[in-house]
Amino acid sequence: MLFAISKDNTGPRVDQSALFEGLMRKSHRQAYSLAYRLTGNAVEAEDLVQESFVRAFRFFAKYDPSMPFSSWLYRIMTNAHIDSVRRKGKLRTMSLEQGGTDGNTTWEVPDLESSPDRQMLHESLDEPVQKALSSMTPEFRMAVLLADVEGMAYEEIAEVMRTSVGTVRSRIHRGRKQIRKHLMKNAPQTYRSYTDEL
Amino acid sequence: MNCKSVQTYLSAYLDGELCGQESLQVRDHLMRCGECQSEEHQLRTLKQMLRGLPTYSPNAEFENRLVASVMGKATGRPALRLHLNFRWQVATGMVAAGILIALAVTKLTERSVPGANALPVATRDSTFEFSRDQLFMAGNDPLSGNRFVVPTSYGKD
């Protein structure tokens, strides 16, 4: 058959719109946090979240509920982020003025049991770590963030990134080493203070 | 396992992602090798640091803005789509490209006679007369592909 004109069956039905909206409201904060780490600033994080949800909604009829919605969304976000980075043709680095103090973003420190000193160290390391993340390729950045910030298992990350577990293992290991090298070069005192405290 | 292979496994070891045999081999090596122990300690520290980084939250109004934007874009999509298989997509593309090339070639080889059908009433202005002569010559050129055009005002003076 040459072609078929059909009603667009890739889009969600009306009852699925409400379901999607519920999922979006529930997951958008976590998605934003990951997007912020991926992009390094609030404006691009919002754009990335929006683009990811638009794509997700478009293909919601193809979503397999056996996969966690967040994993499926992160898969879409991975592609959207890589597309965005390649479109720009360069990796952005975060400016010193950006970060939690830009007025558009608030901080949430999840480790309530940590000491105030440790919290301060984390906050002082946040900016150099973000810079290190921004200097990496999007594939390495995503792998490290999914493992260390989202706490996902390698198999899950492989599914999100549509690659093998071996590739994920390599990306995480090399990515972490890149971050360490960056910190030792650009924020040696803060990094040493942190490692000495442990 | 030697130091090099152990060190490539260290992140996976720390994440509990090695199988039992590999994990035991790495642990056995670490007990005997100070250099790899130090590397393992550094990577463990880095992992803890990354885990403890603060998370970011969007503005309070972002949620509603996001929902409105995503749902708004989704409802603005076309209701019908033309589905072509790959071979027909290629064929359609080639036909479209052919038409475009033919149009471009026609356009390039065409020597137009601008304003030939809408010549203004002749004036004594020398610029106009000069251009009128050029039009006339272009119209007489058998290679131009244009119709023979004689300005109606010609010869009235």
Helicity range of chain A: 55-70%
Helix content of chain B: 55-70%
- In terms of quaternary structure, the protein is heterodimer
Annotation field: number of helices of chain B: 6
Question: Can you tell me the CATH superfamily of the largest domain in chain A?
Answer: Winged helix-like DNA-binding domain superfamily/Winged helix DNA-binding domain
CATH architecture assignment of the largest domain in chain A: Orthogonal Bundle
Between the first and last Cα atoms of chain A, what is the distance in angstroms?
Answer: 67 Å
Judging from the principal axes of the Cα atoms, what is the shape of chain B? elongated
Overall geometric form of chain A: elongated
Task: Describe the protein's architecture and organization.
The complex is a heterodimer of chains A (198) and B (157). In chain A, 68% of the residues lie in helices and 4% in strands. Residues 1-10, 91-103 and 106-114 of chain A have low confidence and may be disordered. Chain A folds into two domains: 8-92, RNA polymerase sigma factor, region 2, helix turn helix motif (Rna Polymerase Sigma Factor, Chain: A), CATH 1.10.1740.10; 110-198, Winged helix-like DNA-binding domain superfamily/Winged helix DNA-binding domain (Arc Repressor Mutant, subunit A, Orthogonal Bundle), CATH 1.10.10.10. Chain A is mainly α and 198 residues long. Chain B has helices at residues 3-14, 20-32, 34-51, 62-75, 86-109, 126-140, and strands at 55-57, 80-84. Chain B is elongated. Chain B starts with a helix and ends in a 17-residue tail after the last helix. At the A-B interface, strand 1, helix 1, helix 2, strand 2 and helix 4 of A face helix 1, helix 3, strand 1, helix 4 and strand 2 of B. Strand 1 of chain A pairs antiparallel with strand 2 of chain B, so a sheet runs across the interface.
Topology readout:
The complex is a heterodimer of chains A (198) and B (157).
Chain A: E1 3-7, H1 14-39, H2 42-58, H3 69-88, E2 106-108, H4 116-134, H5 138-149, H6 154-161, H7 165-186, H8 188-197
Helix pairs in contact in A: 1-2, 1-3, 2-3, 3-6, 4-7, 4-8, 5-7, 6-7, 7-8
Chain B: H1 3-14, H2 20-32, H3 34-51, E1 55-57, H4 62-75, E2 80-84, H5 86-109, H6 126-140
